[in-house]
Prior knowledge:
Residues 1-67 are annotated as: Disordered. Belongs to the GcvP family. C-terminal subunit subfamily. It catalyses: N(6)-[(R)-lipoyl]-L-lysyl-[glycine-cleavage complex H protein] + glycine + H(+) = N(6)-[(R)-S(8)-aminomethyldihydrolipoyl]-L-lysyl-[glycine-cleavage complex H protein] + CO2. This protein is an alpha/beta fold and 556 residues long. Among the domains are: 153-407, Aspartate Aminotransferase, domain 2 (3-Layer(aba) Sandwich), CATH 3.40.640.10; 410-540, Alpha-Beta Complex (Aspartate Aminotransferase, domain 1). It is 31% helix and 9% strand. Strand 5 (304-309), helix 9 (321-324) and strand 6 (328-331) form a beta-alpha-beta unit. The radius of gyration is 27 Å and the shape is globular. It starts with 114 loop residues before the first helix and ends in a 14-residue tail after the last helix.
Amino acid sequence: MDHDQPQRPGGPQAAAGVPAGAQAAEGVPAGPQNRGPVADRGSPAPAAMAAGTAPGQAEPAPVGAEPEPLIFSYSRPGRGGMVWPEPDVPVRPVEERVPAELLRQEAPALPEVAEVDLVRHYTRLSQMNHAVDTGFYPLGSCTMKYNPKVNERVAALPGFAGLHPYVPDELAQGALRLMWELERALCEMGGMTRATLQPAAGAHGELTGILLIRAYHRARGQGHRHKVIVPDSAHGTNPATAAMAGYRVVEVPSDARGGVDLGALEAALDDDVAALMLTNPNTLGLFDENIHRIAEMVHAAGGLLYYDGANANAILGISRPGDMGFDVVHFNLHKTFSTPHGGGGPGSGPVGVKEELVPFLPAPLVERDPATGRFYLDYERPQAIGRMRSFYGNFAILVRAYTYIRALGAEGLRRVSEDAVLNANYVMRQLAGLFRLPYDRTCMHEFVLSAANLKERTGVRALDVAKRLLDFGIHPPTIYFPLIVEEALMIEPTETESKETLDRFVAVMRRIVREAQEEPEVVRQAPHTTPVSRLDEALAARRPVLRWRPEGEDAR
């Protein structure tokens, strides 16, 4: 965004180990971070020229006092970072290859920079990003856990990274075996019979699952079923997926304990219902105590149960969706099984199904010849819903997830969920006295607080709390979701965070609440230490500036 931003206010030098401008919470040592102290940002460079400054040149400002310039600011005519070799093929004039009406009359305004300037510029930009490798990321509903580096090393092995998707089966036995074993591991954890690895994200897995359910009903002569039931606490992708597949969405409310209201569910069930889409534990971080009764009700009405696997990080080795009564489940490999997450991808959302839905899985599936032990791709699937992705899914993500599962084993995966649940309950109880706890019961891997009490007393909103956390080097939690909780703060610590990190987070939250009571403007105007301060959100949404234009070029 290129909108005008407020100048960074001045402040004391950061404590050691805290990101530029961030502050340590009282009584709690700063967590390890990727950036150290930074000079005071509050003093703009004086207009007067300092001794030794060249005529016409502004006095240098301290590091961090000014925003990183655009790459074009480093451009100088004739400067470059590489030398092109002489062509070793005949050269034809571009006029002979491109129609005249498509030829430029002027050269494009591309930056001309040296390699060292290019590398430093983009390295500095990368250091402005928050990442799970550099700081705590308690983003509820997204399971932003640390990704072990062994996953990356295995995915980079030449036999995996350099494998062409069109290579014959006999030359891809290692990759096919990995996919075959990963499918069976996921089915074991989900209580499913078979699975497709094609879907490239969780929402893509949702669509695959709903299309499988649609194919199942049509094959049984039940194509008239046109409704999908979705709880009011569901991820927003659930109703969107159902609508995309041609279904009418019916919402049911939550009960007083945060589960599905059984009375409302019973009223919604009829012969037109195709499925119930459910997350368990749900988006409130609560395990639905009535899940077996819910499954009985939906199945009695002729519908199927779809399991949104976004929150599977809480149940590994403890409970299985198939045992709860679910017929279809998707797993988010980029959440539960520790592969890179965010920045638009890549992701992976394999979908597992019970026996009666196996014929509809997308082709191909990896099969194993029992006589020879050789693996092969089976395309002979006449009832398949069709291919959901080119080739066989995001293979490098499959490798990372397989590595994670094999490294931990069954006991390790159960420990993942036990620690995730323990961490969430520990933090929830530490913060329950500061914020409202809408559902006061044991949570699973995440929990939802309400900042409505803080807003009533001080005018400080959940958004303000989230922005202030940035000043302490902590990524904000999810806010204003689920929609059924006013001023929601949705927090997921994950199992990879230490008690020291959690204690620092709690101390920071306590400080923010105290600031809201004593100095509310400090919180309402946050963040104060980031490269860009709080955006005018309405202007940024309606009139975004997404590209640079040379001086004098018409911006229309």
